[in-house]
Design brief:
This protein is mainly α and about 210 residues long. It has one domain. It is built from 10 helices and no strands.
Length: about 210
């Protein structure tokens, strides 16, 4: 593993987390510009990963499509199970889901941009691509990237302590992404899976 790739990956992770923590303003032209800047930066920093992944996709198209289909089914099942259990035992619903529904009403175009472009590209390049460059052990990589991803989707959208239980739910769902990535050896697989999952979520809000 080249040190330059590790440094680039670390830079992307730092920038992404700083952006997530510091930029909490409502949708605006400035926020869209910043989002586009992060997308361009992520693609630039991990352009070698994208090139290698394109080669792997060409070699394993059949496995690629099957993995995405199975991953999507697994995510739906996990989301349904955890959603029912949390509502049954704790009487709480997903804080991220509530935030997305509210944004869909107030700024539907920005929500679509965020869920269909920003998240599939930036989040996958950060949590699946960059983390894998830094953490070589597959088990540790899967667990750490998934837990941090799950925490991201809860900690910055809710201040209620009970909602933090959803970190478990989101982390379980997030485990599907690194598994798909490791299986296909292509970052495009979790990207496309993320896109399909988010598109499905938007359709459910309509």
């Amino acid at each position: 593993m080249e040190k330059s790739n590790i440094y680039k990956s670390l830079l992307l992770i730092i920038v992404f987390f700083l952006y997530t923590v510091l930029i909490k303003s409502s949708p605006s032209i400035l926020k869209v510009v910043l989002d586009l800047g992060i997308i361009i930066l992520a693609i630039f920093l991990l352009k070698d990963e994208l090139k290698e992944s394109a080669y792997e996709f060409k070699k394993r198209k059949g496995k690629f499509i099957l993995s995405i289909f199975l991953g999507f089914v697994a995510i739906l099942v996990l989301q349904a199970l955890t959603g029912v259990l949390f509502e049954m035992f704790f009487k709480i619903t997903s804080p991220s889901g509530e935030a997305q529904a509210a944004l869909f009403k107030s700024a539907p175009l920005y929500l679509c941009f965020s869920m269909l472009l920003f998240s599939p590209i930036v989040e996958e390049l950060t949590f699946r691509g960059a983390f894998h460059k830094i953490i070589q052990n597959k088990v540790l990589y899967t667990l750490i990237s998934s837990i941090l991803y799950g925490a991201l989707y809860v900690l910055f959208v809710s201040t209620e302590s009970m909602s933090y239980l959803f970190i478990i739910s989101y982390s379980l769902v997030a485990i599907v992404y690194p598994i798909i990535y490791l299986k296909t050896k292509s970052i495009y697989a979790p990207m496309l899976l993320h896109l399909i999952q988010n598109a499905f979520a938007i359709l459910m809000m309509m």
